[in-house]
Amino acid sequence: MNVRRRHISGIAIAAATALGLGTLSACSDSASAANTDKFDVVAAFYPLQYLAEQIGGDHVHVTSLTKPGQEPHDLEISAQQTAALGESDAVLYLKNLQPAVDDAVSQSEVRTKIDAASLTTLEKHGNEVGGHAASHDTSKNDELAGLDPHIWLDPVRYAQVAQGVGKAFEKADPKNAADYRTRTAALVTKLDALNTEFKTGLASTRTKVFITTHAAFGYLAERYGLTEEAINGLDPESEPSAERVKNLEKMAKADGVTTVFYETLVSDKTAKTIAADAHLKTDVLDPIEGITKKSRGKDYFSVQQANLKALQKALGSK
Predict the structure, then answer these.
(1) Cys-Cys with 221: which of 32, 130, 194, 309 at CB 3.0–4.6 Å?
(2) Mean pLDDT by 10 residues, the chain (318 residues)
């Protein structure tokens, strides 16, 4: 148990009662999220979990609200998770990505609430992000545009978030501040190196345009001078219109696109259908919303390096 006194929120008690649990500690043990002798952090989904683990090291106990293989956009939180959230020392989330998480955080009395979206800049992205392919796309997708939450796919923005998380940990758990500062600096150095890898690896390619299933790679495309054309908008479960499919096929031919990318946590049916109709290849470009057995890597960095190789192959790296 932590030496500091915990304040149990009303919502946590209600959640435990709803589960028919005799004590809140039973709920916390079941959720494995709180009441340890470490700094207890609840992360909303994998990229934030990874940051907390890398920055916190042995000082933190981190759990994720989103299970491996679970699509995070439509997450529903269980009563157990809600109760454990109320018992944690800190929560790390990304506002407007997961409405259920936003609601739970706003009602929780957890002392340290870290919104990753406030630690960097977000932009409004629709189906097409990056620039020069817009002339080939006559579809009207303004209603699909919104603040793009996929900031972790841009190593520069992800580093900015890491720095903010590190400072929040230092403030909330001052006795370990020096270690948090050191680990944050090491992580930012690795992200700077990854940024250089992408910048160098994508500097000279035959084409700058790539097609994805949903608009997760807008920040990455802008960072490295590429254009992402998404079959769907920011919602990975939405269905493209016939006009959108027609325009994608036209654009692919005009810009020498070779590949339609799909991802590990969403059905590849639409991507493969469009690729077959347009005589294109398919490959995986992972938005790193979770790590599973299907992932091309064991963590954020190895999957990003696999993404770089996939882009180099599809774009015709020189």
Answers:
(1) 130
(2) 38 38 32 72 97 98 93 88 92 95 94 97 77 41 64 98 98 98 98 98 95 91 94 64 81 89 83 87 94 93 98 93
